[in-house]
Amino acid sequence: ASAVFGLNNAMVPLLGFNIGAKKYDRVKGFIRLGLTTATIIMVLGTLIFQLMPSLLLNMFNATDEMLVVGDLALRIISLSFVFFGINVVINSVLQSFRQPLISIILTILRSLVLLLGFAYLFSNWFGLIGIWWTFPLTEGLAIFLSLLALKWLLKTQTE
Q1: How many CB atoms lie within 10 A of CB 7?
Q2: What percent of the chain has pLDDT over 90?
Q3: Which one of 2, 45, 50, 93 has the largest count of C-beta atoms within 10 Å of its C-beta?
């Protein structure tokens, strides 16, 4: 995730400069590059968490019980990584186009409303495993909303 936040920090000034210069082909190219790069980074992270969760947990001296519980938790939660990376990039695009309110609304919706709401419901229905599934579900729903916002933004701001 840190690499995606670094990508975010690099994208904002590049996008801002090109938006100001009204070079929308370059803006769209940077957006594609950012989305592609974030996806690659987060797919690699997902693969690491899918293939080596016990190794990651043992870095923190995990007990046998923690390995059993943590192995499944890391595998489920890591399914949300790619969606998270894309959401971060789209938020940087929204900020670059001076749409911070939309970015904030999407972030609050994802981080508080959906995540906490699903965690509460799923913990009551499915227990601990339900809480882990809230991460991919929340990020999946959030990416749908973020992509709608991005589509609207590009249609209204670059034509």
Answers
A1: 19
A2: 84
A3: 93
